[in-house]
Amino acid sequence: MRSVVVLVFLLAAGSVAAAPSCFTRPEIDAAHLRVLQQQFNVAALNCQTVDPGAPTFSERYNRFVTLFSDQLQRNSETLRRHFARDQGGLDRWITRIANNAGQAVFMKPDFCQVAWDRLDHVITLDGAQMESYAVETAVARDFAPACPEKPAKKGN
Questions:
Q1: Per-residue model confidence as pLDDT tens digits over 28-54
Q2: Residue 81: how many CB atoms within 10 A of its CB?
Q3: How many C-beta atoms surround the C-beta of residue 145 within 10 A?
Q4: Which structural domain range is residue 46 located in?
Q5: Which of 65, 92, 109, 155 has an alpha carbon within 20 to 30 A of 84's alpha carbon?
Q6: DSSP bridge partners of 146
Q7: Is 23 helix (H, G, I), strand (E, B) or coil?
């Protein structure tokens, strides 16, 4: 019995140590973009437009992905590096975000409208503006805790 308890403790301690516990400023910025993208993705799968002649949410989302493919690729690399110590961590993190957005579709009556308005605005921006807009939305605040600031070194 004692060996089982020790093994469980070691496994739990190892998984905690392997998981990134906080995000640096560039990683937080990348997280905001990924969360916004995931919200758009969930909206594209769940939200419908009223006017059959208007572009669908999926068409708008595909335009977003095409327009910002370079930024989205860089974003992905930043997050992959962040989660590199935790095999599957990025996938679990993205799944958590998607599940949260999926719940919001049903819990927030304005989810689709907010996502549409954001997407409609984002596709009018250039790459740098889009990345800044993602940060301004603060959509990742619950998904990317900031690393504590390191105290400045005092001179000798």
A1: 999 999 999 999 999 999 998 778 888
A2: 14
A3: 14
A4: 22-137
A5: 65
A6: 23
A7: strand
155 lies in a domain? no
The model's pTM is 0.78
- CA-CA distances (angstroms) from residue 5 to 9, 17, 114? 6, 18, 48
Is residue 88 assigned to a domain? yes
Residue written as tokens 């572009």?
55
CA terminus-to-terminus distance, the chain: 54
Number of domains in the chain: 1
C-beta neighbour count of 40 within 10 angstroms: 22
pLDDT tens readout for residues 47-104: 987 788 888 899 999 999 999 999 999 999 999 999 987 676 899 999 999 999 999 9
- In residues, how long is the chain? 156
What is the Cα–Cα distance from 79 to 27, expressed in whole angstroms?
7
Q: How far apart are CA 52 and CA 154, in angstroms?
A: 64
> 143 by DSSP, 3-state: which?
coil
Residue 151 included in any domain: no
